[in-house]
Amino acid sequence: MFPSVRLRAHATVRTRRRRPGTAPAGRSASYAEFPVRSEARMPEAFRVAGLAATRVGPEHLDGLVGLDSDPQVMASLGGPRPREVTEAHLGYDMEQWEREGFGMYALVAEGGDVIGRAGFRSTVLAGVEEVEVGYSLLTGWWGRGIATAAVDQIIGLAGLTELALSIAATVGPANRASLRVLEKAGFVYERQLVRAGETMGLYRRVLPPGPWGEGPGVVTADGCPVEVYAALPADGRAKLVDDRIRAGSSVLDLGCGTGRIAEPLAALGHRVVGVDNSPEMLVHLRAAQPVKADIATLDLGDRFDAVILASNLVNHPDPATRQALLDVAAAHFTPSGVLLVERQPPSWFEQCHAGHTNTATIGEVTTILNVHARLGDLVSATVTYGLRGRRWSQHFTTRWLTDDDLRRALADAGLDLQGLFGPDGTWAAAMHARPR
């Protein structure tokens, strides 16, 4: 089975013209100019489902020949291939790695045996330039969830490298095993197309830039289901903030959502202004003053005794966006005031390997975290929420900030880190740096 990935459009791209005749045997040579983001490059090795996934090379040829000559493995992939065709495919895959910075991986078990392949090949589907994600496994490894895990992790890595905008998968209607893999990996049926004379279903999984979500009712631009957030109980964060500020302080809560921190703080006697870009979130504020605005461009012309940047916004995957948030926060508290920043603690990232899951219950709301991929300090994950028989999904990428990373980011905004507090150092307090 061979799904595919559409590339995201970027202002900065490099274009590579493919040489005629470089497609492997059995595939179209009609490759057009193919834009790839300059910085995009997939990792050459990782682990998935207990296997080593390694950029394909000559050392994998014999294993791939064994895979391609198995009639059961190749039943939905055009039938068994002779060695010379497998060798041609391998040559093309190796060239594509050099040319594009992504390609196929050999799936290698303990002991060094190649038990499958998974990864990307560039192609054209229905006249659209795509990158196909494909996989195959020896029959003895079927039924273990390896294909689903490999597809999910490879797509997650493509998202973390900002290579892909959406993943399209083509599969014949009789290939029920691959259809199940697609369903588990979050693909949605799009339409039919004819490929190599066969009618196939085209499925797609979307990977837009930034966080996004889906489910009933209102879901904000960054993927937050409003009904779920409104149902979440107060969780003690307001008390952590209250302990760090003076009685009757003026407080600016950036990204306040439904007011889980802002409303309890107002009840404790503070003057609270809550900023969010979702009017559906802000309607839940009662005691706090709502302001509809984007944080990164906020200019209230006022300064507060304390500014809150909660909800792990500081872990934004884009350093420039993170810095813009901190710059705005710094501009909105008094010279003697304090900025209180909530981050994902290092211990959270330490456990977030690909395939990690965690289930929790918060009041009426159940949450299931599924980590798709990890690349350096970036993690791609989905949280699934359950409430009163309904479900929502929120997809996001977050960046690990060490204590030193946080200290440097604050310094770039003209702030000094005063200390960490809260469970596992989740919160940081910062003040304006003194002139040196």
Task: Summarize the model shown.
The chain has helices spanning 61-68, 83-100, 146-160, 176-184, 226-231, 237-242, 262-267, 279-282, 319-331, 346-350, 403-412, and strands at 2-7, 13-16, 34-37, 45-48, 51-55, 104-108, 114-125, 128-137, 164-171, 188-195, 198-206, 212-214, 250-254, 271-276, 289-292, 304-309, 333-342, 357-362, 365-375, 378-387, 390-399, 415-421, 427-432. It is an alpha+beta fold and 436 residues long.
How would you describe this protein?
The chain starts with a strand and ends with a strand. It has helices spanning 61-68, 83-100, 146-160, 176-184, 226-231, 237-242, 262-267, 279-282, 319-331, 346-350, 403-412, and strands spanning 2-7, 13-16, 34-37, 45-48, 51-55, 104-108, 114-125, 128-137, 164-171, 188-195, 198-206, 212-214, 250-254, 271-276, 289-292, 304-309, 333-342, 357-362, 365-375, 378-387, 390-399, 415-421, 427-432. The chain has a nine-stranded antiparallel beta sheet with strand order 4-5-6-7-8-1-9-11-10, with helices on both faces. Mean pLDDT is 88; it is low at 2-38. The protein has 436 residues and is α+β, with helices and mostly antiparallel strands.
Span from first to last CA?
A: 63 Å
- Stretches where pLDDT falls below 50 for ≥5 residues? 2-38
CATH fold descriptor of the largest domain: Aminopeptidase
- Determine the strand fraction and express it as a percent band: 35-45%
Structural class by SSE content? alpha+beta
Question: What is the general shape?
Answer: elongated
Give the strand tally.
23
